[in-house]
Structures are given as C-alpha cells and as structure tokens.
Amino acid sequence: MGFLLRVSAFIIAVAVTAGRAAADIQVRDAHGNIVTLPRAAERIVSLAPHLTENLFAAGAGSKLVGTVQSSDYPPAAKRIPRVGGHTGLDLESIVTLDPDLVVAWASGNRRDEIGRLRRLGFTVYISEPRHLDDIPNEIEKLGKLAGSMPAARPSATQLRNHLRQLRRRYSSLRPVRVFYQLWHQPLMTINGEQIISRALALCGGRNIFAGLPALAPSVTVEAVLAADPEVIIASAPDGRRFRQWTREWRRWRQLTAVERNNIFSIAPDLLQRQGGRMLQGTALLCEAIAEARRKMGDER
Asked: Under CATH, what is the fold of the domain 173-295?
C-alpha cells in the first residue's frame, strides 16, 4: 500500500510540475535568450521609446509603470514615470517600481546596466529590430509576455499588410544611390545592418555607406562627394535644422542630389524608432525616392 501511495504522489508531483511548465510564458529575445514568465507581466518598464510604442501597439500600455525620457508616443506615454534617459538609467527608481518585466534595447541601453538589472533579479527582454518584419514580430512577442495577444495580433497583421503593399509597389524599381544623414556635426549616417538601410532597400534605394562596420558611423563630406548620391535624406529634427543642412549641401553643386534638388527630410521619430510608425516613415521614404526618379525621368 505504501509503495502505491509513493507512486501516486510521484505521479501527482510530475503532473503539477508539468502543468506549471506548460503555464509558463516563453519568448525568444533578440540575443537568442528564452525569456520566461510564470504568468503575464502586470508591471512593465520600457527602456527605449520604440519599445514604449510597441508595448502600446501590443495592447500593454496600461501595464507600463516606467519608461525613459524620450518616450512621448502615443500621448499617454508622457504620463508614465521616468526611469532615466540617453545618459543612463535610474536603477533605484526601477527597483522601487518592482517590475515583473523590463524591456531593453540592445544597442541603446548600456550592457553593464542591463547586467545589473539581471543580477538584481529582474526578468529582461532584449529588443534589437534589424529588419522591418521584426517590428510586427516583436509586437506579438510583447503581447504574449503581457497577456494582450487579442490586441497585439491584429496590430501586427496590419503592419505586415502595409509592408506587403510597400514591397509590391517599390522593391522592384531601379536602385537609386542614397545618402541618409543621421546627424550634422559630426556627419553621421547608417550602415547596411541598420534597419533604416533595410527600409531604403525596400524603396529601391541603395545605401552608399552600407559596407561600413559601425551601425551609425561618422563619415566625411569628401566620402559623400566621392560616392555622389542621387538622393539625400536628412533626418533633421525640425524645419530650421533641415534648411541649415540643405544650405550646406548646396555648396557642393557637383553632387547629383544637389543638381537635381533631391534633398528630402523625414521626421526622425518616423524612421529612427523601430516601432509601428516606422512603416509610415518608410512610405514617406519611398515617396521621396519615387519623386527623385521622376525628376530623373526614370520611373522604372
């Protein structure tokens, strides 16, 4: 009889353990880590503006208890308590908020700070979208972690449909040489691994600095002149800055982009944040490159 009782207890224990394992929520993050939660996150801290946007898109905005200084979209994000900014995190504030999930940006948050959060016992999900398809995928992952998939799934589907339409319309057109100006002083751009470069490619643009090793390298005016872009996309933060940048490029009349008046501006928030609005920015990018083609008499 005792033997049967022990066997029964063992079977029950295995069943309970298996049930708990089955109930765990698991997703794989950008670093390949399996992020596991025993239940849907109820208190989330976001460490990047694009992550805040994606959490709202995933239906988890109401679960955000902390975010960083530049998180200003959607408008509701402005009311969330701040836990740091581009100069670093306020780890003490994060500890006080006691989140059950911290969502971090691999190339935007310091590795040592992410490590400290993990050592403090927090579950950390790492984000690093490198392809446009990563954005809807990530929204679904965040929805799974937050238990908000009924909202996340249609949001992701809408973005995938938008991507499909853009690819159908633009991706087979003749490549156009493009210089994407990330900043003015120092003069900065993007390489081929940066997600904005993938947006350029979708639009039929060829990033003239795709081969550089750094994601956001500094370059010289001489290097831009040598590559002779047909289009310049300036990510100026406002109209005054765009006019200033444009005046400086117009000094170099030998540039094809200057000669043909192919200098365009797209708001940084629409291309430099890897959230759902990046598809809006990509559509504007495609329209700018299409306009440049028309000026060159080539709409193929």
From this structure: Rossmann fold (3.40.50)
Q: Which residue has the higher pLDDT, 87 or 249?
A: 249
Q: What angle do CA 160, 276, 146 make, to 5 degrees?
A: 95
Q: Looking at residue 14, what is its pLDDT?
A: 42
Whether the per-residue pLDDT at 12 is higher than 50: the answer is no
Write down the domain spans for the chain.
21-156, 173-295
Nearest to 191 by CA among 217, 154, 171, 168: 217
Cα–Cα dist 166/164, whole Å: 6
Any residues with CB less than 8 A from the CB of 224 and at least 6 apart, and which? 179, 187, 208, 255
d(CA 162, CA 164): 5
**pLDDT number for residue 298:** 65
Q: Which tens digit of pLDDT belongs to each residue from 179-209?
A: 999 999 999 999 999 999 999 999 999 999 9
The length of the chain, given as a count of residues: 300
Distance spanning both ends of the chain, measured CA to CA: 83
Per-residue pLDDT at 129: 94
Q: Token pair of 257, please?
A: 């982009």
Pick the CATH number of 21-156 from 3.40.50.1980, 1.20.1440.230, 3.40.50.410, 3.40.630.180: 3.40.50.1980
Residue listed under structure tokens 């939660």: 37
